[in-house]
Design a protein that fits this description.
By secondary structure, the protein is of the alpha/beta class. The protein has twelve helices and eight strands. The strands form two sheets. Strands 4-5-6-7-8 form a five-stranded parallel sheet. α1 runs parallel beside α11 and α3 packs parallel to α4.
């Protein structure tokens, strides 16, 4: 037993608790946060969505780089235009080109004319992307302002993922609560050089939100701070153009069910459903169980891997709150589109 590795430890709880099997959600679902860039699986994704009661699904993989967004639109809309929504992803490798922001904003506008309905910012902004001088490109870099402004002009949202769980920015030692995940995925560790502190990245994002009040920003992964819901609440109070989605953070939200339930009821108009997991009926059903039932002490990892070495508890949300999170809030934001 002394040779047992943490990665191999898989304890079976002796607790006997209620298990609720939900095949379909109470209301049609819009998954606002997913990645469908593996275009060969498009029909498979659609089949899994049908099996799980998912009405529409957003792919955040409509990349500007290599004009991939054009092929993504062609394939996904060719399969089911009314079921797949695509968000354009800027190409920051071109940051040193003259008038980068204006040029990328024009590419965004072209992508929207072709069918894209949002913008996606990945965590590599603020963590990895550098210009030719070697300087890290900050989230609030002024060269990006034309892109944020164009989103407001077009009436499309920005899905913005900056930083990662708090544990990913702390030393990889015996006190790190996500050490097992980081040992399996070492590239997820952002502690120390050459990375900026998590707080610095979050503050830069908030400056962008404040600077562009006419643009809607959706904070991926519950605003990227589900460990401190009181601060996420503060941001929602301060920035009326800020929303959050729940994707890939069931592990954080489900271990504080009382606080999360109160939060979701209070901010029911500002929370969206998302998964960050390629469409799978099994994965979706774990989310439904989390949101709809009062089941206790169950494993969130089938919905999204590496969610922490702990169990979660259901939120048993009221039906009116569920419907808003499942689809109404997304419909409201998508309905802001100013295109013809």
């Amino acid at each position: 037993m002394r040779d047992l590795k943490l990665a191999d430890w898989a304890p079976q709880a002796q607790l006997v608790a209620k298990t609720t099997d939900i095949k379909k959600p109470k209301f049609p679902v819009i998954d606002i946060h997913n990645h469908l860039g593996d275009l060969e699986k498009t029909n498979h994704y659609l089949e899994e969505m049908n099996n799980a009661g998912v009405w529409r699904c957003v792919s955040l993989d409509a990349n500007s780089a290599g004009d991939f967004y054009k092929e993504h639109i062609r394939v996904s809309h060719g399969a089911a235009k009314d079921r797949f929504l695509l968000f354009f992803r800027p190409d920051f490798s071109r940051i040193d080109e003259p008038n980068f922001g204006e040029n990328e904003a024009r590419r965004l506008e072209e992508a929207v004319r072709m069918g894209c309905r949002g913008l996606k910012i990945a965590k590599t902004l603020g963590l990895n992307h550098r210009d030719k001088s070697g300087r890290l490109i900050a989230v609030d870099d002024r060269r990006l302002d034309p892109i944020w402004a164009k989103c407001g002009e077009l009436g499309i949202p920005v899905m913005i993922h900056v930083s990662d769980p708090k544990a990913f920015f702390t030393p990889l030692d015996r006190r790190n609560e996500r050490v097992d995940a980081l040992m399996l995925q070492p590239t997820w560790s952002f502690h120390g050089d050459p990375y900026p502190p998590k707080e610095e990245i979050i503050e830069a994002r908030n400056r962008v939100i404040a600077r562009h009040p006419g643009t809607v920003f959706i904070g991926a992964h519950f605003g990227n701070l589900p460990e401190e819901l009181h601060r996420v609440a503060m941001w929602l109070d301060v920035y009326p153009n800020f929303y959050v989605d729940i994707d890939a953070r069931m592990g954080e939200l489900g271990r504080q069910p009382y606080t999360t339930r109160r939060f979701m009821i209070k901010y029911q108009d500002r929370i969206l459903f998302g998964t960050d997991t390629p469409p799978s009926a099994e994965s979706y059903r774990v989310y439904y169980r989390f949101l709809e039932t009062d089941d206790e002490y169950f494993d969130p990892n089938p919905a999204h891997p590496y969610q922490g070495r702990w169990m979660v508890y259901g939120l048993y949300l009221p039906d009116d709150v569920l419907e808003k999170i499942y689809n109404k809030n997304a419909l409201k934001i998508l309905g802001m589109f100013k295109g013809r």
